[in-house]
Amino acid sequence: MQLEGKTALVTGSSRGIGKTIARELAHRGCTLIVHGSKESDALRDSFEDVKKLSGDSIMVTAELSEPAGIDKMFSHVEQSVTRLDILVNNAATQKPGPFLELEQEDWDRVFSVNLRAPFLCAQRAGRIMRDNKTGGKIINISSVHAYDVRRYYAHYSAAKGALETLTKSLALELAEFNIQVNSVVAGAIATELTPLDRQASFLTSIPAGRIGTTGEVARLVAFLSSNECDYITGASITVDGGLTLGFCASRPDL
Ligand code: NAP
User: Is 170 part of a structural domain of the chain?
Assistant: First the structure.
């Protein structure tokens, strides 16, 4: 799973899962484009971390709910790196709430960041990969919420479900350009922001008996980024310790 000579853009790599993905790809020899919504200490820390592993890496900021922000980010990317081999659509937002109280504004925001931004980023990255004739990999970070719905996540689940379908459509259309498109369906993953009580309440519904780590998601992304899996496209690969195997149905508190 060596990625020397490749360049990857990981959206939302200032913290959480995206930060570990950026580090993992850099560790395997990839040049990184580290992204956050805005300048922040977290973004700078993540970038400094990656730079130690991969010196040519760069940092970009863009508010992904705004198409103009995405345009600006890709203009910057095109001026700063000579190739783009891997796009990881990782950034996402959520604001859980009861369906009957859901504001249209919240629906629109979740859909703009979690679905429209991956579409626009995949289109821009796909054009670069096609024009460079280098092929490439697009990896969408999805969620078990796409399949296994929970209360208060109607907009998040719908957007992740659509992201799963989008993955397959892109895989079909981009195969002729040697671009593989896959999704990683993550279960409950511990990040700095996952509240500990939420982690504890999940444990009994996870057959593996524990929350996943960001490293476990990142290593799968590294595999999907590599030429080891050039024949895998349109796949959704679950990393959830068995969470979606049916345990949830017996847990009315979830
Ligand atoms: P996180 O810690 O909340 O980090 C989110 C990242 O996305 C940050 O880098 C953030 O940038 C960026 N971001 C959020 N809104 C943005 C916006 N409007 N414009 C630009 N960037 C934005 O998230 P996470 O828990 O690591 O989740 C990463 C991915 O895994 C998401 O796709 C999520 O749906 C999926 N996932 C997570 C879990 C889990 O248990 N954690 C489970 C299943 C799936 P800033 O720092 O600049 O705000």
Answer: yes
How many CB atoms sit inside 10 A of residue 72's CB?
Answer: 15
Residue 125 lies in a domain: yes
For ligand 1, whether the C-beta of 141 sits within 6 Å is: yes
> Ligand 1 pocket, 46 CB below 6 A?
no
How many domains does the chain divide into?
1
Q: Which domain holds residue 226?
A: 7-250
- Whole-number Å distance, alpha carbon 89 to ligand 1 midpoint, is 10
Active site residue 160: yes
Cβ(61) – ligand 1 distance below 6 Å:
no
Q: Give me the average pLDDT of each 10-residue run along the chain (254 residues).
A: 95 98 98 98 98 98 98 97 97 96 97 98 98 97 95 97 98 98 96 67 84 97 98 98 77 57
In a domain, 1, yes or no: no
Nearest atom of ligand 1 to the alpha carbon of 193:
2
Q: Is residue 2 part of a domain?
A: no
- What one-letter code names the amino acid at 224? L
176 Cα: distance to centroid of ligand 1 (angstroms): 31
